[in-house]
Design brief:
Layout lengths: L2 H19 L5 H9 L7 H11 L3 E5 L5 H8 L4 E6 L2 H14 L4 E5 L13 E7 L9 H11 E12 L34 H8 L13 H10 L3 E8 L12 H4 L5 E7 L10
Parallel strand pairs: 1-2, 1-4, 2-3, 4-5
Antiparallel strand pairs: 5-7, 6-7
Helix pairs in contact: 1-5, 1-7, 2-5
C-alpha cells in the first residue's frame, strides 16, 4: 500500500471517532431538516447546478454522514450514491436515509481514489467539495475516479473551501498568519481545530493523525484537464459553508475568498491516454 493510501486509512479511523463523538448527536436535527423537504445547498450552488440536478443520477464523493447527499434528492436529483471512507459515516448516512424513507439513496464505504469498476459511467453529475478535497492526498487518482464515474456529457461540480483560508489563525479577530504555513506548501499536515481537536479529545495521545493537503484551484483544474474533462466554469466567492473565523467582523470576511466552484464536463469522446 502506498503512503497516500495508508494516510487515507488513518484519516478514516479519525473520522470514525468524529462521527461517533459529534454527528450522532445531530442525527434527529438532520432528519427533521430532510423531512421538511429542505437541503443545505447554498444559493450559489443552486444557481450553478439547479437545472443539472433535475432528474439526474448523482454520485456524491466524500459524502460524510449523508445530510448533503439526501439534500440533493430534496433539491431535485432522481437518485444519489454517497461514497465515504468512514464506515461509521456510512452507517449514519444509511440510517438517515431509512428514517426519511429515501429509497433512491444508496451509500458505499470506499476510498474515492480506489472505486470498484461497477461504478464506472453511472453518474450524470458528480458532486463534491465542502471540505472534502484536502483529505485526498492523491489528486491524480481522484481525478481518474471522477472521469470514470461520469457518463459522456456528465457534469462534475465542486464547491470547495478556498485554500487561502488555511493561512489564517481561526480564533483571531483580524488577519493573523499561522506560523510556518504557506499558500504553496505541498506537504500534508494537520490543521489546528476541527476535526483534529475532537480526535485528540476523544483518543488522547494515542490517536490517528488527520493529514490535510491544501490543493490550489489551479492544481485541481489541471488534474481534471489531464483526464480529458472540459472546464466549463471557475469562480471564487466570499461565502463560507462553515464559520471557521467566528471572531472576524463581517466586513473582513467579505473582502476575501473563502470558497470556489469548478464546473467540468466529460466529453462524448475522451482524448487518448485519459481515463
Amino acid at each position: 500500500m502506498n503512503s497516500e493510501r495508508e494516510s487515507h486509512r488513518e484519516t478514516a479511523e479519525a473520522w470514525e471517532v468524529v462521527a461517533r463523538a459529534k454527528y450522532d448527536a445531530e442525527f434527529q436535527e438532520h432528519v427533521r431538516l430532510l423531512r421538511s423537504g429542505r437541503h443545505n445547498l447554498l444559493d450559489v450552488e443552486r444557481k450553478l447546478i439547479g437545472t443539472a440536478l433535475a432528474g439526474s443520477h448523482v454520485v456524491h464523493l466524500q459524502c460524510s454522514h449523508g445530510l448533503d447527499s439526501l439534500g440533493l434528492l430534496n433539491a431535485g436529483a432522481a437518485s444519489v450514491l454517497g461514497i465515504d471512507i468512514s464506515e461509521e459515516m456510512i452507517r449514519q448516512a444509511r440510517a438517515k436515509a431509512a428514517a426519511v424513507g429515501a429509497q433512491s439513496a444508496e451509500f458505499l464505504c470506499s476510498d474515492v481514489t480506489d472505486l470498484p469498476a461497477e461504478l464506472f459511467s453511472i453518474a450524470d453529475l458528480v458532486y463534491t467539495g465542502r471540505g472534502s478535497l484536502p483529505w485526498v492526498l492523491d489528486l491524480e487518482a481522484w481525478s481518474e475516479s471522477v472521469s470514470r464515474l461520469l457518463r459522456p456529457k456528465g457534469l462534475l461540480f465542486i464547491f470547495e473551501g478556498h485554500p487561502l483560508d488555511a493561512l489564517w489563525e481561526r480564533e483571531a479577530e483580524r488577519l493573523v498568519l499561522r506560523p510556518h504555513v504557506g499558500y504553496f506548501d505541498e506537504t500534508p499536515d494537520e490543521s489546528p481545530g476541527f476535526p483534529a481537536d475532537v480526535v485528540a479529545r476523544e483518543c488522547g495521545a494515542d490517536r490517528p493523525r488527520v493529514l490535510e493537503r491544501q490543493w490550489r484551484p489551479g492544481e485541481v483544474i489541471e488534474a481534471l484537464l489531464a483526464r480529458g474533462l472540459e472546464l466549463k466554469g471557475f469562480r471564487e466567492y466570499p461565502e463560507m459553508f462553515w464559520n471557521q473565523f467566528p471572531n472576524w467582523p463581517n466586513d473582513l470576511k467579505n473582502r476575501l475568498p473563502h470558497t470556489y466552484s469548478i464546473l467540468a464536463r466529460k466529453p462524448v469522446r475522451v482524448e487518448q491516454g485519459s481515463a
